[in-house]
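Sequence, please.
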């Protein structure tokens, strides 16, 4: 399992910065150096701040590794959210120390969320004094935002408990992995079902059958549930339930008809429910009682809280996100906080799947490129209007992939049946599904054509994971530990044949080839054989390398 490298391990702290008794938290946006100064922020303006507290990350990662070791007393023994926080979360002493420090500086009592997050509202002037910073407005590529001018300073007695300080900038940078494409032929669920063995799996009754898939939403945007159910009903997709939920204290999203975020949540739900038939689909949004701006939660904070709510409250078998941040837009402390949440997800048996991205080689996203998440790339499917269905596939030109230098290469990529290049880093993607060709969406009361991207591949794979969990009657957690342990080709563990198709053609800046590659990862799964392979790995020690 990959460990976060020294630059971002645990709390992203640098002792000193020339101030004895203080440590700095690396929380300034990495692009701040290229932004133009506009002017100082008004010190009387309110600001919403979240302190992400450090957890016992070393102990948690060790526990996750033991989950996948044959003979371990923890083999596939996943924790509940409360068990995780009790075992690896902040101590009560740490919480009390941070709460008292915040209260002494602000005159208010902060709230505690998810067991490891301390939230409070204060003014910019107070924040400047608390953290030894100045708050200014900046302009970066046309976006005007406020931010701290340099990393915050915390007393060493407090910094040892704090992993990150969020809310000091309100730059927006969430992206969706969806592209406008050319072409009139649209891929529909039946095409995917036939080519990738879902039809055979469903004929045996191997759907998700009540397992829960959590979809990470776009802050302050909503979803029209009727669009999703119309999609399912049109294509004869059997379904159980679809719910839009909100982070504690929020209200349903106000924008349900326009914007890339709303369409993203819609297509994520439509396709996760298509490949994960009879799953319980829950779309998590955050829409606190104010909108982006000073005094409100930052876009990053809202997005992170959506994932935290899914992990700590919903605790699904799969969390799917095509709504992510570029690695290059995140601070060191943000990358650390996301990593901690991914480790928690794995310990609880939540498989986190994320889009590898739509911009080709070396343009990576979080959380999909984290070593505890599964990065889903894309393939180009050959479709001919005169010959119904998919007739072939190759690596997609814009499928995201490359090494993430924030993380050491995890054991599942270096020591199991399928191996990534020996470069010392976490490599992406891990697996792929259809991303290029117009793929069906029903949105805003009408059929929408001309869209593709790894946004489609990701929920497709999320549905397959839910199917596999249902059949195995066991959570699979960080499924990469299992996928990389299943060799190519027909084998006893796949039962009926190969679990994957090795995609050997295509180019995204890297070339696809035999075995693992930066275009499609392992390749594309064949649903029925994949489901059997996951089950046999769980119950047959002979099917494991580890």
């Amino acid at each position: 399992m990959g460990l976060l490298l020294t630059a971002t391990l645990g709390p992203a702290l640098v002792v000193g910065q020339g101030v004895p008794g203080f440590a700095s938290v690396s929380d300034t946006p990495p692009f701040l150096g290229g932004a133009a100064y506009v002017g100082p922020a008004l010190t009387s303006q309110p600001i919403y701040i979240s302190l992400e507290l450090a957890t016992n990350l070393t102990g948690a990662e060790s526990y996750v590794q033991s989950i996948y070791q044959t003979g371990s007393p923890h083999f596939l023994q996943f924790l509940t959210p409360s068990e995780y926080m009790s075992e690896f979360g902040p101590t009560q002493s740490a919480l009390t120390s941070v709460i008292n420090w915040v209260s002494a500086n602000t005159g208010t009592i902060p709230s505690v969320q998810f067991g490891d997050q301390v939230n409070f509202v204060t003014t910019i002037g107070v924040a400047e004094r608390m953290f030894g910073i100045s708050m200014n407005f900046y302009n970066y590529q046309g976006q005007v935002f406020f931010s701290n001018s340099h990393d915050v300073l915390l007393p060493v007695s407090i910094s040892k408990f704090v992993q990150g300080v969020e809310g000091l900038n309100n730059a927006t940078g969430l992206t969706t992995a969806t592209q406008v494409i050319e072409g009139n032929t649209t891929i529909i669920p039946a095409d995917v079902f036939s080519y990738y063995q879902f039809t055979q799996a469903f004929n045996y009754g191997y759907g998700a059958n009540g397992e829960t898939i959590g979809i990470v939403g776009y802050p302050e945007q909503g979803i029209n549930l009727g669009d999703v159910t119309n999609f399912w009903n049109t294509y004869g997709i059997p379904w159980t339930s679809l719910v839009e939920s909100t982070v504690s204290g929020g209200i349903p999203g106000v924008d349900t008809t326009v914007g890339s975020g709303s369409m993203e949540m819609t297509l994520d739900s439509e396709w996760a429910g298509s490949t994960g038939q009879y799953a319980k689909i829950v779309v998590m949004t955050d829409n606190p009682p104010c909108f982006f701006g000073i005094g409100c939660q930052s876009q990053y904070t809202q997005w992170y809280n959506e994932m935290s709510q899914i992990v700590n409250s919903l605790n699904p078998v799969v969390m799917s996100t095509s709504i992510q941040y570029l690695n290059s837009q995140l601070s060191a402390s943000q990358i650390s906080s996301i990593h901690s949440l991914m480790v928690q997800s794995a310990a609880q048996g939540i498989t986190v799947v994320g889009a590898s991205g739509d911009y080709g080689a070396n343009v990576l996203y979080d959380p999909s490129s984290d070593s505890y998440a599964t990065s889903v790339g894309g393939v180009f499917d050959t479709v001919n209007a005169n010959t119904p269905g998919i007739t072939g596939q190759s690596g997609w030109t814009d499928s995201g992939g490359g090494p993430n230098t924030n993380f050491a290469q995890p054991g599942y990529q270096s020591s199991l049946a399928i191996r990534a290049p020996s470069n010392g880093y976490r490599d992406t993607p891990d697996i792929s599904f259809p991303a290029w060709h117009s793929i069906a969406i029903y949105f805003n009361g009408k059929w929408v054509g001309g869209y593709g991207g790894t946004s489609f591949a990701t929920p497709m794979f999320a549905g397959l994971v839910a199917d596999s969990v249902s059949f195995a009657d066991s959570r699979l957690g960080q499924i990469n530990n299992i996928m990389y342990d299943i060799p190519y080709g027909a084998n006893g563990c796949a039962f009926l044949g190969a679990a994957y198709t090795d995609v050997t053609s295509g180019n995204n800046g890297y070339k696809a080839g035999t075995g693992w590659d930066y275009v499609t990862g392992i390749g594309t799964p064949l649903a029925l054989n994949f489901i059997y392979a996951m089950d046999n790995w769980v119950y047959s020690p002979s099917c494991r390398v580890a």
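The chain has a mean pLDDT of 90.
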